[in-house]
Design brief:
With about 180 residues, the chain is mainly alpha-helical. It has a single domain, classed as Orthogonal Bundle (Jann2411-like fold), CATH 1.10.3300.10. A two-stranded antiparallel ribbon has the order 1-2. A two-stranded antiparallel sheet has the order 3-4. It is globular.
Length: about 180
């Protein structure tokens, strides 16, 4: 995983954080191992997902809470220390053939190790490249989600634009219709 691939990795961290029951009004989107495997496979983690165990699910739930805590309190030093802790125990920094810094998983890594590394790289990359003001809470009034904004202009407002943004737009449209 290249260290400059922060857009993809921060996106995965945001997706992971927003699987909690608090965001989905009581429905956890990672309730069991099957859901964890389904979450991991589209992110290129199918091999590790196939070996996932119940301990991975518990570790990913803890990771999800840790990453949410980082997003909710975006102090630069705290973000760097927290993300560094997520990456240093599970990976090794190397210089790849294209002279890019990369992090590779240690041998016998688990799915939770891979997700920890991904989240740590995402947080570190965004802090370094875009700054700590890119860690935000969702602006939708009925959502308690959070996200890492990797957009070029840095104006993202919703944790899930297709869901939260659409809900706000529909509510605004209905309010305009009611006034007319």
């Amino acid at each position: 995983m290249a260290l400059d691939d922060y857009v993809r990795t921060a996106g995965i961290a945001t997706e992971l954080v927003n699987t909690t029951a608090e965001v989905w009004h009581g429905v956890d989107h990672l309730p069991d191992l099957d859901a964890l495997v389904a979450f991991a496979e589209p992110h290129g983690l199918a091999e590790l997902a196939g070996r996932a165990r119940a301990t991975d699910l518990r570790a990913v739930h803890r990771l999800r809470a840790t990453v949410r805590e980082l997003i909710d309190h975006p102090d630069r030093e705290r973000l760097i220390a927290g993300a560094s802790a997520l990456t240093t125990t599970v990976g090794q920094v190397t210089l790849d053939a294209r002279t890019r810094w990369a992090v590779s998983l240690r041998p016998r890594a688990t799915l939770s190790d891979a997700l920890s590394l991904i989240c740590g790289v995402g947080v570190l990359g965004v802090v370094q490249t875009l700054g700590e003001d890119r860690f935000r809470a969702c602006s939708a009034p009925t959502c308690s989600g959070a996200f890492i904004d990797t957009t070029r202009p840095g104006r993202r407002r919703y944790c899930m634009p297709g869901l939260c943004g659409n809900r706000v737009n529909v509510a605004n449209h209905r309010a305009r219709q009611a006034r007319e």
